[in-house]
Write a structure and sequence with these properties.
The protein has 344 residues and is of the alpha/beta class. The protein has 2 domains: 187 residues, Rossmann fold (3-Layer(aba) Sandwich), CATH 3.40.50; 117 residues, Rossmann fold, CATH 3.40.50. It is built from 12 helices and 11 strands. Helix 8 links the parallel strand 7 and strand 8. The chain is elongated and about 80 Å long.
Amino acid sequence: MKRKMRIGILSAGGDCPGINAAIRGVGKTAIVEYDMDVVGIVNGFSGLVEKDIIELNEQLLSGILTLGGTILGTSRLKPFKVIDGEDPHHKPSLIKKHYEDLNLEALVCIGGNGTQKTANLLAQEGLNIIGVPKTIDNDIWGTDMTFGFDTAVHIATEAIDRLHTTANSHKRVMVIEVMGHHAGWIALYSGIAGGGDVILVPEIPYDLDQVFECLMERSRKKKPYSIVVVGEGIDKLSKKSAGVYIAKQIRKNTGLETRETILGYIQRGGSPTATDRILATQFGAYAARLVHEKKFGTMVAMRKGDITSVPLDEVAGKIRLIEPDNQMVVKGRHMGVCFGDCIK
């Protein structure tokens, strides 16, 4: 009898709504469609270093579609990162050894930018790797969308909706800080969806005087309140909260009553939206197909509405950022949204 193909799945980096849906998509497709054996690697790449695994079957993969987090656990271990006094080859060598000891013929790596970078390095070491992009930040190069993003935008938009009522009641400026260290996709999408008056994202250099003038002009026009949506990475040099800083400067320079809300980790928690469940399932199922077709060294991606793949070595080390001519930015400007710069 022909031996079954045996594959591993891991999730690494930050948690994200939809990871379990992706694990289920990979595992069920691999088992049902391609008759593979599937192993879950516990706690990301550290599970391969420590040889910590669980055998996955249809029963274990049932009932996890709607769950947030990851049944496999996760960690931020970067096996190729050189730590003082440590042999730089130690962890990669252990991963290769345990990959072989476990008789794995492929490894599916679910994660964000750091995970895909590590996945590419493992592919260069000779392992059969397939990447699956996940992040609420939507900033992985090579794919138009990542799962987790829609859920984060939904949560942020709901928060902005709720801030509208309290801002109107008290006639305040409400500043809400959302996640996004390098890319402002959550701030842009939730800001537009939630009717933000000012949206500040890391990709667009801002001038606080422009923000102050926008808010004062709204006050002069008897508009009773304003909503300011801030991406956490707008001030890369400061270790302070961007939302707290912006709110403080608005109070100081305009005299307008201002409050800040930092949304934080709730954007990453809880059950994924239907959109994220579908996208994660599609990504997972396509990853299993890529394994079956032995198209290794690639990452699953969505391009113009189609599920496809891109080479991992083209993805690693790049970030998908908001371009100045992004149509949502352009449309926002046409509706009077202030992005903190001088362009009208």
